[in-house]
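call fold(seq) -> tokens
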Amino acid sequence: MFPFVVWLLCAFISSACGSTSPTAPTSPAADFASQFDSLWTTFDREYSYFAHKQIDWNALRSAYRPRALAAGDQRAFVDVIREMLANLHDGHVYLRDPGGTVIATFQSPAFVNWDRAVWQQYIAKAGWTQGQVDWGHGVLDGVPYIAIGGWNATSIRAADFDAAFERYRNSPALILDVRMNGGGMDSLAFEIAGRFIPSPINAGYVRYRNGPGHTDFGAPVQRTVSPRGPWQYSGTVLLLMGRRCASSNESFIMAMGQLPNVTLVGERTAGSTGNPMTFPLAGGWSYTVSRWIEYTTDNQIIEDNGISPDVLVTATAGDFASGRDPVLDFAVNRLARR
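ret:
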């Protein structure tokens, strides 16, 4: 799972899901006591999921502070910090070394229902048109198929999607696959969703920490997605999803799932939302802190829970070993029969 975690975290960098503070915080002094206390206090003040995850933050301070202060060097100190932060099991909490390398604090054990090698065998038969790095489109057994691997400008631009989408304007149905998409920028995800949404919709809510207590939050803020472009697609859409879908991709899935012509197919999403902010340690190191709680349209917390599909279709390692993608097979067969 480690390559996926690194890929997912890299998707957050330079994105709305991995935003930095508008006013850069001051780095703490280089001694380990100053660094530890600065990090612990920042989490205590900013982190959004203590109550939801039932974390005793004071107990973790007592357990890890002596070990951190006894570390032999900066890397050993960071290793202790990483171990402490792993207790949050939060994909949006990670460290970054002075060279910019992301160091995950949590690796989900969930099996991912998408395999790149098998997927490439499928799209090789689809008359595939490759977009930027992580998206493209084609036709599988007469069914239009679009895959979007990330919500960031290095993966897809709204204008490029629009140009490709035009050719499927009159198709009665299509498959939209985001199983490989770990997130990125909410704004871009909602721009693409706007090509399917005929009128503004509620895409859930967020609440930010706004006080010193772990349960101090502001009022819920509704997330609204509006139509975009000269026309909206109204045909049948099967949206393929799974455990790799996180962060802004879960926001996208939540928005699309409100539409009557969209069916969510696959497995539950990752349950990883946080809108993190970056804070400094000494020596060029930094860390991120999740700042919000994101809720579904019926006020369920997404973190750790994920979003359920309308139609559950599972995949196993054995399926992929034999060259099969059950989720994509289900979608193609269901629409091809039409």
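The CA atoms of residues 95 and 218 lie 27 Å apart.
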